[in-house]
Amino acid sequence: MHPARRLWSLTEPYHAVLYFSPEPREAFEAAGVRGFWRGYFAGRAAPLGPVGAAPVVACFYGFAPSFVARALPSIWSLATPAQALQARQRGVEAALHRLLDVDAHRAAIEEAGALLHDALASCQPAGRPLYAANAGLPWPKDPVLGLWHATTLLREHRGDGHVAALTTAGLDPCEAHVTQVLATGVTVDTIQPYRGWSDEDWDNATRRLVSRGWVTAAGELTEAGHAGRQEVEDTTDRLAAVTIESLGTDGAAHLCGLLEPLVTSLVDAGELPYPNPIGVPRPA
Fold first, then answer.
1. Does 30 reside within a domain?
2. For labelling alongside 52, which of 25, 255, 261, 264 has CA 20 to 30 A away?
3. Model-level pTM greater than 0.85?
4. Is 178 a member of any domain?
5. Which structural domain, as residue segments, surrounds residue 111?
6. Each residue's pLDDT tens digit, 153-193
7. How many domains does the chain have?
8. pLDDT (tens digit, 9 = 90+) per residue, 197-206?
């Protein structure tokens, strides 16, 4: 596994409590934002400000435009971006303090957060809208939240690079999901309904990929399809490698060692499903 991918697999579960734990949902509801997807879009888009659907469709990439438009911009009449950010922080803080023995892991949490803080300083905001928006937020004083903020920056930096890789490969959002399903073997129902694409959308994307020579008539990736999808993943890892280069080989290995027991605790809690719509693998 590429070191940048390994680091992502160990930081994404820490970030993902925002989506899979009950406390963030409760915090968004308390702020007036009811419904999982309204909370999702409010929490993740809030660093961008009171944007409409179009910028979020562009930045988030994988969602059907009509799916995004159900939440945006109407959610900003329920809660301002500042209120959404406060809700996500309250929810994440409550979830992590419930799921982790913070006192037992405090030293690792503090050191991992400090290492990521320094490594992320080498990341440039140009061409990385979601990373840049989150990087503009204040770094939390609580080490538990500080590490969560660091994992959020890391994942949005990687995600922005993944969007660039998919765009360079000429894959539109639905085609990207079709190739992901075929390349990884996950079932369609773990992704399609969570991104708002209809069966017709999915079938049309598959037909386009057949015409391109990436998918066979039987619905399997061709050699060109496998190679193209692998190039996307390799490019994503390469674009995410700046933090690894900053940490150095030994520093990255040390950071992963600090994160492993934290992530094991989160995974063992069973709130992050495998497989999952965000595509993060079970840490090996």
1. yes
2. 25
3. yes
4. no
5. 3-167+233-268
6. 999 999 999 999 999 999 999 999 999 999 999 999 999 99
7. 1
8. 999 999 999 9
